Amino acid sequence: PWSDPEDYPGLAHFCEHMLFLGTTKYPIESEYDRYLTENGGTMNAYTANDHTNYTFAVKHEAFTEALDRFSWFFKEPLFNESGVDREVNAIDQEYAKNVPQDLIRQMYIAKELGNPKHPSHAFNMGNKLSLAHANPEVLRKWYDKHYSAHLMHLVIYSKLPIQQLVDMVEDKFAGVPRRDTSIFRTTEPLFGSETKEKIIYYSPLMDLRTVSVTWELPGEFAQMIETHPDSIVGSILGHEDEDSLLAQLKREDLAEGLSAGGYRLGEDNFAFRVSVSLTDKGIRQTPTVLERIYQTIAMLRETPPEIYTFNEVKRMEELRYQYQSREDAFDFVTNHAREMLYEALETYPMKSRVTQRYDAEAIKRMIALLTPESARVMVTGKPALTGRKPDRQEKWVGGDYSIEAMNADLVKRFADAKPHEAIHLSPPNPFIPQNLQILGTLKDFTGIPHPKRIRQDEGGEIYFQADQLYLVPEIVWKFRMRTPQVIPNDDRSAVLADLWVRSFTEQLNSLSYTAMLAGLQFAMEAMPDGVQLTIQGYSEKAQELFDSLLAQLRTVRPTDAQFRTYRNSLRRQYENFRKESPFKQGYEELQGLLYRDIVTVPEKARAVRGISYEDFLDFSSKLFRQTYVEGTLYGNMRDSDADKAWTSLRDGLGSVAYPKEQHNKRRVLQLPKEPGPFFYAYRIKEPGNAVILTIQNGPFSFEARAAQQILAKGIQQPFYTELRTKQQTGYIVYNWASELERQLFSHFAVQSNTHDGRDLLARFELLVERFLQEMENEDLTEERFEIIRDSSLTQLKQPPKNSLEMTELLHLLAVDYEGDFDWMAKRIQGLESLTYPQFTAYAKDFLGRGNHRRLAILVEGELPPDNQFAYRNVKNGRKMRKLSEYEPAPTPCQTASAR
Q: How far is CA 102 from the centre of its chain?
């Protein structure tokens, strides 16, 4: 976007969209999308300040053809006029989706107040106003200027031999032209003078309380990819141990969380930011919070970071590089294509991924630049809390804000800040791995392993599987602890469980953060009938962390003041959900309907105010009196390690058994066959509408699930192309299939800034009806059926990508599928045995008009006046006459005069 023409803000983003709508070799608009979808693929793109990134992933057998289609994006895109006229509406729908987001509004306020001579000051998202006159010629001219072979970086990820890939790339991309252009660079600063020694007060849509301090640093820091001084400074300012800045802010009840670090904005642009999530007290005392930040910076000036801090950062970077977990191919190429922009190919990715050397002088220079005089400060909070009424509104997305000069005494107070007596450098990290060893031996993947059951009684079941697939020194342990204290579909116990998880996490924050820096982390989450603990990371000191967690499992007792802070924080979190997008609100409503035992966020928002400190203490004291534990342990460990982990948990819980027969069974919605189909609508105050249509497909069988899976993929491209690309009803257009408690459901959803919910629902049904009518001749022929089935089989036969995904799958099979570890093999058999005639019969049963088990949720938000178009019901003709006027036909003379 920094290269957008002044007359066409957002043109780079618009060009990104247009490349998907046909090329000279592949002129059909939806052909690329369709080819990827039916071959198990995915695609996306994004436009950043200084680059645009295009990515696709597809099954191996389809890779060569997909790459050919992709390569023509960069040789001869069409830029058809009809596509331009329609796609500008998609840009506008995306813009409308972003307008009510606080992060976007904060960003655009910063841009508005930035240096007007820097292109970052401009509007770069694009909408139908800024792009109203962006015709094909304008797009072509901009594309020809900026899309040049020598500015492109291509990342290919495939199991083909390297030389074959090189030959393929040379063949496919030889026609990409090289143009007389160069990388955008400017010496202009991003920040403007208007924010110097001032505070921006942003009035958010959600109930947020934050303060951020951002420094623009000299361009040299963007080039320091060998030393990364920002990593060292950020690791200290953002630390969370007992001697840290955050710990002190928490002791004073000023903050809930903190982050710090540097980030690159372009080729020569770099910034450093400290951001603090504030309490009710903190938002009213932001000068004190800012003073603590500058006191910590003063401490760093007087006591520079020790070499052990650098050694720890470098050690962890080296371990992450050495023991890389296999990641999703799509994410892999996306990340590398972005990162390699800033490092020479000869060394990539070593400098980007691993700090090469310690540069004490660069660290010292960076710390010296973090001054109140050069900072941009933004306080985010409701005017009633900040005491500042907004008097400005940002031009493009409408963020309300004010800007106020700091008085000279306050600036001097920050500039002269001395180190705080309770904030110090963190000691060496005891969790840093020193002696990692691989315990397993590699075995070929032949299917999902059958873990060993190491415990089964009325108190639970525990499974263990040693890693023989990934051979990384990592473990993942998952323990689901069911307890009668957490009652399904009970809003009070759901809120109490959330409060307990928050209290437990806060109580262990210093320890857990230190472990996290060493590649070892835990997560505790509330479940409908208990809590679930996950430990993940390097195996060497996992048991040590586990023992520390268990020692405090039954001693969660925050102070009354801490409890109020946590409760207020959760209340805001719950109530802020009302400001989420129409789709998110509709999806939450759907989940609450589909599952009888789920408490929705709005239900929690109503219940949280009635929870007292005494209620919490009573709940916490009883939480683990009775438990049923379902655990899965996977990774770099022996049988004895698994036994030790289970014994530690059993002793730490100290529970009596919660027998399985006393558990609440999960119940899922059964829509009636008559008198459906059904819909209901509800109003929200947020911009936009959303419709989610759910169709119950009947009971699970492996054959039916296979048909449902193929059908969801087969209808994906027609649904997206028709509703999004052609009809331009919305930017968010989804369909998916689900299996819930052995019941099958198909789902369709659109979020729209232009169309009424009933209108959208009618379009859904029309598309589904037409799809079923034409399926066997056009949209899902037997040939396409075979292609989609083959790609689905390829996906199911692939092993989970890493230890975490393997553990999650094994845990799911152990807990939700009664330990049937052949389930995925049966899914594969279901796909392999499904015939095309069987599939078409299922498809018509699932989606045909004879299936009345349909429920549509219509979320009705606010549409712009120009986009409001909906039929209104009038009771009868008499009422219509009263609303209308009658006029006689004009005389012939009047008609001639009009002509």
A: 16
Average pLDDT score over residue span 553-567: 96
Alpha-carbon distance 588 to 604, whole Å?
Answer: 12
Q: Please state, in angstroms and rounded to a whole number, the distance separating the CA atoms of residues 219 and 224.
A: 9
Beta-carbon contacts of 733 under 8 Å, excluding residues fewer than 6 positions away, are 719, 720, 723, 724, 749, 750
Local structure of 328: helix, strand or coil:
coil
**Ramachandran area for residue 211 (φ above 0: left; ψ -120 to 50: alpha; else beta):** beta
**Tokens 């660290």 sit on residue:** 363
Q: What would the mean pLDDT of 495-502 be, rounded to a whole number?
A: 99
Of 2-6, 506-510, 541-545, 893-897, least confident by mean pLDDT is: 893-897
Domain ranges, ordered by start, for the chain: 11-173, 193-415, 452-662, 678-867
Reported as type and span, the H/E element at residue 717 is helix 702-720
Q: Superfamily assignment of 11-173 in CATH?
A: Metalloenzyme, LuxS/M16 peptidase-like (3.30.830.10)
Nearest Cα neighbor of 212 from 271, 274, 256 is 274
Q: Are 350 and 342 in contact (CB under 8 A)?
A: no
pLDDT at 896: 59
DSSP element (H, E) containing 361: helix 360-369
**CA quadruple 581, 491, 509, 435: dihedral, nearest 10:** -90
Please write the tens of the pLDDT for every residue from 270-279. 999 999 999 9
For the domain covering 193-415, report its CATH number. Answer: 3.30.830.10
Does the pTM surpass 0.85? The reply is yes
* Residue pLDDT, tens place only, 138-193: 999 999 999 999 999 999 999 999 999 999 999 999 999 999 999 888 889 999 99
Q: 640: helix, coil or strand?
A: helix
The string of DSSP codes covering 827-845 is HHHHHHH--HHHHHHHHHH
Residue 327 has pLDDT above 90, yes or no: no
Pick the closest to residue 149 from 179, 194, 187, 124 (CA basis): 179
Q: Of the CATH numbers 3.30.830.10, 3.40.50.150, 3.30.1330.10, 3.40.50.300, which one belongs to the domain with range 678-867?
A: 3.30.830.10
Of the pLDDT bands very low, low, confident and very high (cuts 50, 70, 90), residue 890 is confident
DSSP 8-state class, residue 891: P
248-259 per-position pLDDT tens digit = 999 999 999 999
Which residue's entry shows tokens 């951001």? 275
Question: Which residues have CB under 8 Å from 106's CB, separation 6+?
Answer: 202, 378, 380, 399
Separation between Cα atoms, residue 643 and residue 652, nearest integer Å:
14
Determine how β-strand 198-203 pairs with β-strand 375-380.
parallel
List, as one string, the DSSP characters of 396-429. TT--EEEEEEPPHHHHHHHHT----TT--PPPPP
Nearest to 739 by CA among 696, 782, 781: 696
Using only C-alpha atoms, the chain has a radius of gyration, in whole angstroms, of 30
In DSSP terms, which residues pair with 466 in a beta bridge? 635
Residues 281-306 as b or e (16 or more Cβ within 10 Å = b): bbbbebeebbbbbbbbbbbbeeebbe
Reply yes or no on domain 452-662 having CATH 3.30.830.10.
yes
Distance separating alpha carbons of residues 756 and 585, to the nearest angstrom: 17
Give the H/E segment covering residue 283.
helix 280-284
Q: Is it the case that residue 122 has pLDDT exceeding 60?
A: yes
| 77 token code pair | 């895109």
Which of the 8 DSSP states describes residue 206? Answer: S
pLDDT at 367 over 80: yes
Range 336-368 burial, b when 16+ CB lie within 10 A, else e: ebbbbbbbeeeebeebbebbeebbeebbbebbe
At 26-67, the pLDDT tens digits run 999 989 999 999 999 999 999 999 999 999 999 999 999 999
- CATH topology agreement for domains 193-415 and 452-662: yes
